[in-house]
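Help needed: design a sequence for this.
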C-alpha cells in the first residue's frame, strides 16, 4: 500500500496557484502550451505587480483560471504605459484555450525579441 501511494504521488503534477494553466484546473492534458501560460502569468506579475486573477479561497483556480469563458485581463488596462505589442504577447500567452497560445517557447521568444528590439 505504501508503495502504491508513493507511485500515485509521483504521478501527480504540482504548481503554484496563479501561475497554473486552465487545463491543470480542468484535469486536461498538460503540454508545452501549459508552460506558455505560466510564463505569461509570470510576465503579467513582473510588469503589473499582481497576478492576472486575484481571488482567494478553495475554488480559486477552478472558479477563475479554470473558467474557460473568463479571459485574462488585458495588461494594458492594468499598466497604462506598457508597450501595446508586449501586452499583446502576454495576452496571447494567457489565452484560456491552449490551442490559441504560442505553439512553442521558441515562437514566444521570437515575438518577445522582436518586441524588445523596437523599444
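Sure. Designed sequence:
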Amino acid at each position: 500500500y505504501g508503495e502504491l501511494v508513493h507511485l500515485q504521488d509521483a504521478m501527480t503534477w504540482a504548481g503554484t496557484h496563479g501561475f497554473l494553466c486552465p487545463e491543470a484546473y480542468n484535469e486536461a492534458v498538460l503540454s508545452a502550451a501549459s508552460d506558455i501560460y505560466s510564463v505569461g502569468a509570470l510576465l503579467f506579475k513582473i510588469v503589473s505587480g499582481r497576478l492576472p486573477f486575484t481571488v482567494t479561497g478553495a475554488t480559486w483556480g477552478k472558479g477563475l483560471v479554470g473558467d474557460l469563458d473568463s479571459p485574462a485581463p488585458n495588461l494594458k488596462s492594468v499598466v497604462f504605459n506598457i508597450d501595446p505589442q508586449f501586452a499583446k504577447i502576454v495576452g496571447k500567452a494567457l489565452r484560456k484555450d491552449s490551442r490559441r497560445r504560442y505553439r512553442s517557447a521558441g515562437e514566444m521568444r521570437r515575438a518577445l525579441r522582436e518586441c524588445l528590439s523596437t523599444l
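The two ends are 58 Å apart (CA to CA).
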